[in-house]
């Protein structure tokens, strides 16, 4: 099974670039930017990675991101993640980035996007990994701030495929961002949003009805509402599920209690992703492996999850077909 998962061609559809910041690289970049950290060593920082809820994690995650200053910092962070994709057989990834985490500290939007997208271009050539970028609005900030971010992004529109919504969910419903999502769609961006990670099913309703999202990030709590489940299936919207993240943030107590298998059995389209791998104890293959063990997933179910990851990506149809063919051939070979 481990061999099957490691070599399975797959896409990652839910990944925050700031959440890939391994403590070693964080310390290295802090040193070159002459920034003093609150933790004396890599080990001390790692010890702090124990969370009771989403907010607990976000507080540390934003602290970590504060050491990113130059275009090279964003390049190094992104390229380092893309190298990990290559060795895990991630053939395509859709990377979320949070511009406001950086622009609020006086870093230019241009610095962030240029560093990230230069790494994406290099990885395509050197690592044969493709990537698309999702600009995520921070929901704990105002809609005005998101609108300013949308305006800042427009000169770089060709580098960004979609807009997302992340950060503190409870108390910040999708409807708070109705105007900026409408404007983002008009500008040509595909809408996605975190919904139902900690928030209830009504947040997912708002995300699909008001924000018109094409993919639900997490969506755990859709199981609270049978009509919602039917509607998600009817509209053919996929869920980007992050099992190790859900355990680390105590959204579920134990991986054995995870609703992924139940969702598959109900006919929901699911994918497996790492969310913030540096903080949650594993990259995508670890998520596949641990979830397989905990829920007894079959090779066929894992194949279907990987197939969904290509099918529900935002790649052009021709690229999707190529990757699905590669996956189908892999699966066929594994069967014989
Ligand atoms: N930002 C980074 N990771 C996140 C998560 N799991 N939920 C909401 N916002 C996030
Ligand atoms: Zn996320």
Written account of the structure:
- This protein is an alpha/beta fold.
- It has one domain: Alpha-Beta Barrel (TIM Barrel).
- It contains 17 helices and 8 strands.
- The protein has an 8-stranded parallel β-sheet with strand order 1-2-3-4-5-6-7-8, with helices on both faces.
- The chain starts with a helix and ends with a helix.
- The mean pLDDT is 98.
- The structure holds adenine (ADE) and zinc ion.
- Zinc ion binds next to β1.
* Bound molecule kinds, no repeats: adenine, zinc ion
Q: CATH superfamily, please?
A: Metal-dependent hydrolases
Major beta sheet, specifics?
A: 8 strands, parallel
Number of helices: 17
Beta-strand content bin:
5-15%
Concise synopsis of the structure shown:
The chain has 336 residues and is of the alpha/beta class. Helices cover 51% and strands 14% of the residues. It has one domain (2-335): Metal-dependent hydrolases (TIM Barrel).
